[in-house]
Amino acid sequence: MRKRKVVFYGRVSTHSDEQLSAFDNQMAWYKQLLALHPEWTVVGEYEDAGVTGTSVRKRKGFQQMLDDGIRYHKYDLIVTRETKRFARNTVDALSYVRLLKQHGIEVYFVSDGIWTISDNDGELRLSIMATIAQEESRKTSENVRAGQRISRQKGILRGTGNILGYRRVGRNQYELDAEQAAIVKNIYKWYLSGDGIRAIKRKLEEHGYRTATGKSRWQFQVIDDILRNPFYTGRQRQMGKISDGYLTQNRVKNSLDQIEYIQGDYEPIISEEAFKEVERIREQRYNKMNSRGKKESKSVWCGKYLCGCGCGTVRRIASGNESVFICHSQHVNGIKAKSGTAGAENACSLRTILEWKLDMIAWYVINDVWGSSKTDASQALKMIEECYSEEIAISQVEINTVQDKIEKLEKRKQGLLDMRADGEITKEEYAAKRSECDVQIHKLNVSIAEAETDRIASADHNQKISSIKQALEKILDLSQPKLNRYIVDGFIWKLVHISDHEFDIYLSMGNESFGDVGAEEKVIQYKVFESSNPRREERVKCTKLKSMRLTYEDAVRYRAMSGKRVLKHKWEDLVVHIYI
Q: What's the CA gap between 510 and 540, in Å, rounded?
């Protein structure tokens, strides 16, 4: 028998004790199965506990297994108990089995007796079993939703009970925590007295108050959620977010008319009137802020330069009147190496960076990639000149045409006069026809006057072209150390600081479809602080163009253009990976 390098895969969908016990039974069962196959050599075990089988996206164990097999060729056989342990989504099951098959990896579904490579009809039987598993998931999803609907009708409250101001004492019972309730009351009192969330955060930390999870440092979002939560008035908001489908299972915001409020049997902390007044003030502040309009940021790197930890960045003025960008997490929580607080292991340790270094990266990258900038500028100017020439030519043709019409009408008037002198038409007929010609001539003269005005106005097109040329040259001048912000903004999508002296730069170059096509997929994480859901993640397809190292000599050359210098003993080379 052929020797096989084997891995086992097991999965349960919840973290309940019963399911975790079943999970342990799965792995023990695999080891019993191993005794029946002496040709198998187990090289790994992969597991996903508390994760749905309808989507691969959330299953880290499954993704690691694929990576180890396809990229590192650690095994040639996956053994899993049944189809629904592998996937409850027909498309996922078939697509991943085919992908593994392309790399010579077989999947053995023990209970279903399916070998995806050895059996001729393996894929057919797999599709049938996967479809059955998917249908089971759909029915389970419907049953869960029906159960939740009945619970809401009965007034059953949901959640873990970890809410500031209360202790959960039963499945549907909460009791007041007097110490924490006082914190909630203070938050509402401060907000109603005119304090903003930033001021409230400062007061909470100055008083030494702790969050529901026992943390001494308060996050803006936590305070905002407390001010929005109707639970403190005696009602629980349910159906605020719902699943977009049993296959994808993404949480999405529900429409306002579908959200339900369940009256609870517990003591409220905040009156309904106070809660509504907070809502009114929030709305008033929001409208006032929006009516001012959004100011353009002082730096093109605001929102474009990202910290590798996935947090946003803050721009501050450093010594020497130089601007510096610092990770927002460091700005709030301190640097990992210096922080002795709880959660410091998750703090960001990346160095801050001076803004001129970001400008320098953009300068070298754009000059390197866009070598044809002068040619492109000349071509654009030529097209503009042609457009102006066409407009002038058309205006002159129109004037000549109108003048020909006026000459014909004047000849017609002379003919009418001759006819009247010869008695061929009456006095009344002559007056009517002449009046008709005069009206038409007047209209044509007005047209000529307008056309002449346009022609005179366009006579200075050389001066206009010269002004446009100067503006283009200024915008596209890549020799200046500080590139025009519109060039940087249109050329660069994001600049990500991935380690102390290493960066990934993504060039969109004005391409609206950037991120749709590429040889590899990159995950970009960042924050939008003014959003109620600040953490964002984007997956972009891109291709690595090249890597560039910026040395001390490069920095000296760049800074010399601004009449500034670089300290050699403080310089570290920067490595920039360019993606398009």
A: 15
> Is residue 260 classed as helix, strand or coil in its secondary structure?
strand
Count of positions (residues) in the chain: 580
Say what the pTM is.
0.44
Q: Which residues of 463-496 are buried (b: 16+ CB within 10 A; e: fewer)?
A: eeeeebbeebeeebeeeebebeeebbeebbbbbb
Give the C-alpha separation, 429 to 443, whole Å: 22
Residues in CB range of 543: below 8 A, 6 or more apart: 518, 519, 520, 579, 580
How far is 249 from 547, CA to CA, in rounded Å? 39
Q: For the chain, how are helix, strand and coil distributed in percent, rounded to 5?
A: 50, 20, 30
For residue 382, give both structure tokens: 């030529």
The model's pLDDT over 514-563, given as tens digits with 9 standing for 90+, comes to 667 666 777 777 665 544 455 667 778 888 888 999 999 999 999 998 88
Tokens of 124: 């057919």
- φ and ψ at residue 364, rounded to 5 degrees: -70, -40
Pick left, alpha or beta for residue 260 (phi over 0 → left; psi -120 to 50 → alpha; otherwise beta). beta
Is the torsion defined by CA of 282, 288, 293, 295 positive or negative? negative
Q: Which residue has the tokens 């749905």?
A: 52
CA angle 375, 379, 380 (to 5 degrees): 120
Task: Provide the residue type at 283 as one letter.
Answer: E
Q: Which of 129, 7, 117, 147 is nearest to 68 (CA)?
A: 7
Give me 106's structure tokens: 């077989």
| Residue type for position 126 | L
List all residues 6 or more positions away from 119 whose beta carbon is below 8 Å from its beta carbon.
Answer: 125
Per-residue CA distances from 479 to 111, 140, 364, 400, 476 (Å) = 69, 64, 10, 48, 9
The C-alpha angle with vertex 148 and arms to 142 and 151, in degrees rounded to 5, equals: 145
Three-class DSSP category at 67: helix
**Are the C-beta atoms of 327 and 515 separated by less than 8 Å?**
no
pLDDT tens-digit series, residues 61-107: 888 899 899 988 999 999 988 887 787 666 777 888 888 988 999 99
Instruction: Find out whether 86 and 93 touch, Cβ atoms under 8 Å.
Output: yes
**Inter-residue contact 539 to 522 (CB < 8 Å):** yes
